[in-house]
Amino acid sequence: LAKTTQPISMDSYEGQEVNITCSHNNIATNDYITWYQQFPSQGPRFIIQGYKTKVTNEVASLFIPADRKSSTLSLPRVSLSDTAVYYCLVGATGGFKTIFGAGTRLFVKA
Amino acid sequence: DAGVIQSPRHEVTEMGQEVTLRCKPISGHNSLFWYRQTMMRGLELLIYFNNNVPIDDSGMPEDRFSAKMPNASFSTLKIQPSEPRDSAVYFCASSDPGQGLNTEAFFGQGTRLTVV
Protein backbone atom coordinates (compact mmCIF):
# COMPACT_ATOMS: atom_id res chain seq x y z
CA LEU A 1 0.00 0.00 0.00
CA ALA A 2 1.14 3.53 -0.76
CA LYS A 3 2.62 5.33 2.24
CA THR A 4 1.23 8.75 3.09
CA THR A 5 2.83 11.76 4.73
CA GLN A 6 0.84 14.59 6.26
CA PRO A 7 1.55 17.30 8.85
CA ILE A 8 1.32 16.19 12.45
CA SER A 9 -0.73 19.17 13.54
CA MET A 10 -2.33 22.40 12.38
CA ASP A 11 -4.00 25.31 14.11
CA SER A 12 -6.75 27.49 12.71
CA TYR A 13 -9.40 29.98 13.76
CA GLU A 14 -13.12 29.73 13.39
CA GLY A 15 -14.39 30.82 9.99
CA GLN A 16 -11.12 30.18 8.18
CA GLU A 17 -10.57 27.75 5.35
CA VAL A 18 -8.22 24.92 6.27
CA ASN A 19 -6.18 22.98 3.75
CA ILE A 20 -4.42 19.78 4.77
CA THR A 21 -2.04 18.31 2.24
CA CYS A 22 -1.06 14.67 2.05
CA SER A 23 1.84 13.26 0.06
CA HIS A 24 1.59 9.81 -1.50
CA ASN A 25 4.42 9.52 -3.99
CA ASN A 26 4.01 5.79 -4.54
CA ILE A 27 0.32 5.80 -5.31
CA ALA A 28 -0.72 3.00 -7.66
CA THR A 29 -2.92 3.30 -10.71
CA ASN A 30 -5.96 1.73 -9.07
CA ASP A 31 -5.57 3.48 -5.71
CA TYR A 32 -8.17 5.89 -4.42
CA ILE A 33 -7.53 8.66 -1.90
CA THR A 34 -9.77 8.75 1.14
CA TRP A 35 -9.93 11.08 4.11
CA TYR A 36 -11.31 10.23 7.53
CA GLN A 37 -12.05 12.37 10.57
CA GLN A 38 -11.77 11.22 14.16
CA PHE A 39 -13.12 12.97 17.23
CA PRO A 40 -11.92 12.05 20.71
CA SER A 41 -13.46 8.84 22.05
CA GLN A 42 -14.99 7.98 18.69
CA GLY A 43 -14.06 5.83 15.74
CA PRO A 44 -12.89 7.46 12.49
CA ARG A 45 -15.57 8.66 10.13
CA PHE A 46 -15.41 8.87 6.34
CA ILE A 47 -15.25 12.41 4.97
CA ILE A 48 -14.49 12.26 1.26
CA GLN A 49 -12.92 10.10 -1.42
CA GLY A 50 -11.53 10.78 -4.86
CA TYR A 51 -9.41 9.46 -7.69
CA LYS A 52 -8.39 12.55 -9.62
CA THR A 53 -9.11 16.26 -10.09
CA LYS A 54 -11.63 17.64 -7.63
CA VAL A 55 -14.36 16.14 -5.51
CA THR A 56 -16.76 18.15 -3.38
CA ASN A 57 -19.43 17.15 -0.91
CA GLU A 58 -21.35 18.93 1.81
CA VAL A 59 -18.45 18.65 4.23
CA ALA A 60 -15.24 19.19 2.29
CA SER A 61 -13.45 19.36 -1.02
CA LEU A 62 -10.62 17.16 -2.19
CA PHE A 63 -8.10 18.41 -4.72
CA ILE A 64 -5.92 15.92 -6.55
CA PRO A 65 -3.32 17.08 -9.10
CA ALA A 66 -2.76 15.27 -12.36
CA ASP A 67 0.21 13.23 -11.09
CA ARG A 68 -1.83 12.11 -8.03
CA LYS A 69 1.27 12.17 -5.84
CA SER A 70 -0.45 14.42 -3.36
CA SER A 71 -3.91 15.52 -2.36
CA THR A 72 -5.37 18.40 -0.38
CA LEU A 73 -8.37 18.24 1.90
CA SER A 74 -10.09 21.59 2.10
CA LEU A 75 -12.46 22.42 4.95
CA PRO A 76 -14.37 25.66 4.30
CA ARG A 77 -15.09 27.98 7.20
CA VAL A 78 -14.13 25.68 10.04
CA SER A 79 -15.83 25.79 13.41
CA LEU A 80 -14.73 24.66 16.85
CA SER A 81 -16.45 21.33 16.21
CA ASP A 82 -14.03 20.60 13.38
CA THR A 83 -11.26 20.09 15.93
CA ALA A 84 -10.27 16.50 15.25
CA VAL A 85 -7.63 14.25 13.74
CA TYR A 86 -7.74 13.92 9.96
CA TYR A 87 -6.33 10.86 8.23
CA CYS A 88 -5.30 10.53 4.61
CA LEU A 89 -5.51 7.00 3.22
CA VAL A 90 -4.54 5.53 -0.10
CA GLY A 91 -5.82 2.14 -1.15
CA ALA A 92 -6.84 -0.06 -4.04
CA THR A 93 -10.34 -0.58 -5.32
CA GLY A 94 -12.47 -2.84 -3.21
CA GLY A 95 -11.37 -1.31 0.05
CA PHE A 96 -10.17 -4.59 1.48
CA LYS A 97 -7.53 -3.06 3.59
CA THR A 98 -7.42 0.39 5.12
CA ILE A 99 -4.19 1.63 6.66
CA PHE A 100 -4.17 4.66 8.89
CA GLY A 101 -1.06 6.75 9.50
CA ALA A 102 -0.56 9.24 12.29
CA GLY A 103 -3.01 11.73 10.88
CA THR A 104 -3.11 15.52 11.22
CA ARG A 105 -4.41 16.95 14.45
CA LEU A 106 -6.42 20.08 13.62
CA PHE A 107 -7.14 22.48 16.45
CA VAL A 108 -9.67 25.21 15.74
CA LYS A 109 -9.58 28.19 18.06
CA ALA A 110 -12.24 30.78 18.73
CA ASP B 1 -28.97 0.06 10.63
CA ALA B 2 -27.42 0.57 14.06
CA GLY B 3 -23.94 0.66 12.63
CA VAL B 4 -21.01 -1.40 13.85
CA ILE B 5 -21.62 -2.52 17.40
CA GLN B 6 -18.81 -3.28 19.79
CA SER B 7 -18.95 -4.66 23.29
CA PRO B 8 -18.02 -3.98 25.94
CA ARG B 9 -17.37 -0.25 25.68
CA HIS B 10 -14.98 -0.37 28.59
CA GLU B 11 -13.04 -3.27 30.05
CA VAL B 12 -10.72 -3.28 33.03
CA THR B 13 -8.90 -6.49 33.75
CA GLU B 14 -5.93 -7.77 35.66
CA MET B 15 -2.73 -8.78 34.01
CA GLY B 16 -2.79 -12.43 33.00
CA GLN B 17 -6.54 -12.61 32.50
CA GLU B 18 -8.21 -13.47 29.23
CA VAL B 19 -10.03 -10.65 27.48
CA THR B 20 -12.58 -11.04 24.70
CA LEU B 21 -13.77 -8.11 22.62
CA ARG B 22 -16.83 -8.48 20.43
CA CYS B 23 -18.00 -6.90 17.22
CA LYS B 24 -21.15 -7.02 15.14
CA PRO B 25 -20.57 -5.57 11.67
CA ILE B 26 -23.14 -3.78 9.58
CA SER B 27 -25.48 -6.28 7.98
CA GLY B 28 -24.42 -7.07 4.43
CA HIS B 29 -20.84 -5.94 4.87
CA ASN B 30 -18.43 -8.72 4.08
CA SER B 31 -15.15 -7.14 5.18
CA LEU B 32 -14.31 -6.68 8.84
CA PHE B 33 -11.30 -4.97 10.38
CA TRP B 34 -9.84 -4.88 13.89
CA TYR B 35 -7.68 -1.90 14.87
CA ARG B 36 -5.82 -0.85 17.98
CA GLN B 37 -5.24 2.79 18.88
CA THR B 38 -2.73 4.14 21.38
CA MET B 39 -1.14 7.53 21.86
CA MET B 40 2.28 6.15 21.03
CA ARG B 41 1.47 4.11 17.92
CA GLY B 42 -1.67 5.71 16.56
CA LEU B 43 -4.28 3.62 14.79
CA GLU B 44 -2.90 0.23 13.77
CA LEU B 45 -4.64 -2.40 11.67
CA LEU B 46 -4.43 -5.75 13.46
CA ILE B 47 -6.32 -8.11 11.16
CA TYR B 48 -9.01 -8.07 8.54
CA PHE B 49 -11.49 -10.63 7.29
CA ASN B 50 -13.22 -10.98 3.97
CA ASN B 51 -16.27 -13.25 3.81
CA ASN B 52 -15.41 -14.50 7.32
CA VAL B 53 -11.93 -15.60 6.26
CA PRO B 54 -8.84 -13.93 7.75
CA ILE B 55 -7.00 -12.30 4.88
CA ASP B 56 -4.12 -10.59 6.60
CA ASP B 57 -3.16 -10.91 10.25
CA SER B 58 0.31 -9.45 9.92
CA GLY B 59 -0.66 -6.64 12.27
CA MET B 60 -1.45 -8.95 15.15
CA PRO B 61 1.25 -8.15 17.69
CA GLU B 62 1.95 -11.65 18.99
CA ASP B 63 0.50 -15.06 19.68
CA ARG B 64 -1.40 -13.78 22.68
CA PHE B 65 -3.79 -12.14 20.23
CA SER B 66 -6.30 -14.12 18.21
CA ALA B 67 -9.34 -13.17 16.18
CA LYS B 68 -12.23 -15.18 14.84
CA MET B 69 -15.22 -14.58 12.66
CA PRO B 70 -17.51 -17.60 12.98
CA ASN B 71 -20.22 -16.01 10.85
CA ALA B 72 -20.99 -12.89 8.88
CA SER B 73 -22.52 -11.08 11.84
CA PHE B 74 -20.02 -11.65 14.61
CA SER B 75 -16.31 -11.41 15.32
CA THR B 76 -14.15 -11.63 18.41
CA LEU B 77 -10.69 -10.43 19.32
CA LYS B 78 -9.16 -12.34 22.20
CA ILE B 79 -6.09 -11.55 24.26
CA GLN B 80 -4.75 -14.34 26.43
CA PRO B 81 -2.95 -13.64 28.68
CA SER B 82 -3.41 -9.89 28.80
CA GLU B 83 -0.57 -7.52 29.70
CA PRO B 84 -0.55 -3.85 30.74
CA ARG B 85 0.95 -2.88 27.37
CA ASP B 86 -2.22 -4.15 25.70
CA SER B 87 -4.10 -1.21 27.18
CA ALA B 88 -5.58 0.69 24.25
CA VAL B 89 -8.80 1.45 22.42
CA TYR B 90 -9.75 -1.36 20.07
CA PHE B 91 -11.91 -0.52 17.09
CA CYS B 92 -13.85 -2.77 14.81
CA ALA B 93 -14.89 -1.62 11.35
CA SER B 94 -16.76 -3.11 8.43
CA SER B 95 -17.08 -2.32 4.76
CA ASP B 96 -18.79 -3.60 1.65
CA PRO B 97 -16.25 -3.94 -1.15
CA GLY B 98 -18.98 -5.43 -3.29
CA GLN B 99 -20.14 -1.93 -4.03
CA GLY B 100 -17.27 -1.59 -6.47
CA LEU B 101 -14.67 1.11 -6.81
CA ASN B 102 -13.27 1.98 -3.44
CA THR B 103 -15.45 1.96 -0.38
CA GLU B 104 -15.50 3.43 3.06
CA ALA B 105 -15.05 1.65 6.34
CA PHE B 106 -17.63 2.16 9.07
CA PHE B 107 -16.23 2.14 12.58
CA GLY B 108 -17.71 1.13 15.88
CA GLN B 109 -17.42 3.21 19.02
CA GLY B 110 -14.47 1.19 20.24
CA THR B 111 -13.64 -0.77 23.38
CA ARG B 112 -11.35 0.93 25.84
CA LEU B 113 -9.24 -1.79 27.44
CA THR B 114 -7.25 -1.21 30.59
CA VAL B 115 -5.01 -3.97 31.89
CA VAL B 116 -3.76 -3.38 35.42
- Poorly predicted runs of chain A are none
Q: How much strand content do the residues of chain A show?
A: over 45%
The helix count of chain A comes to: 0
Terminal Cα span of chain B: 36 Å
Structural class of chain B: mainly beta
Gyration radius of chain B (Cα, Å) is: 14 Å
Total number of beta strands of chain B: 11
How would you classify the quaternary structure? heterodimer
Gyration radius of chain A (Cα, Å) is 13 Å
- Largest contact between protein chains? A-B, 24 and 27 residues
How is the biggest beta sheet of chain A arranged? 5 strands, mixed
- Which percent bin holds the helix content of chain A? under 10%
Low-confidence parts of chain B, pLDDT < 50 over ≥5 residues?
none
Report, as a whole number of angstroms, the end-to-end distance of chain A: 38 Å
Characterize the main sheet of chain B. 7 strands, mixed
Envelope shape of chain B: globular
Mean of all residue-level pLDDT scores of chain A: 90
Supply database-style keywords.
heterodimer, A: 110 residues, mainly beta, five-stranded mixed β-sheet, four-stranded antiparallel β-sheet, 0% helix, 49% strand, globular, B: 116 residues, seven-stranded mixed β-sheet
In short:
By secondary structure, chain A is mainly β.
Secondary structure topology:
The complex is a heterodimer of chains A (110) and B (116).
Chain A: E1 9-13, E2 18-23, E3 31-38, E4 45-50, E5 53-56, E6 61-64, E7 70-75, E8 84-92, E9 104-109
Parallel strand pairs in A: 1-9
Antiparallel strand pairs in A: 2-7, 3-4, 3-8, 5-6, 6-7, 8-9
Chain B: E1 5-7, E2 10-13, E3 19-24, E4 31-38, E5 42-50, E6 53-56, E7 65-71, E8 74-79, E9 88-95, E10 106-107, E11 111-115
Parallel strand pairs in B: 2-11
Antiparallel strand pairs in B: 1-3, 3-8, 4-5, 4-9, 5-6, 7-8, 9-10, 9-11
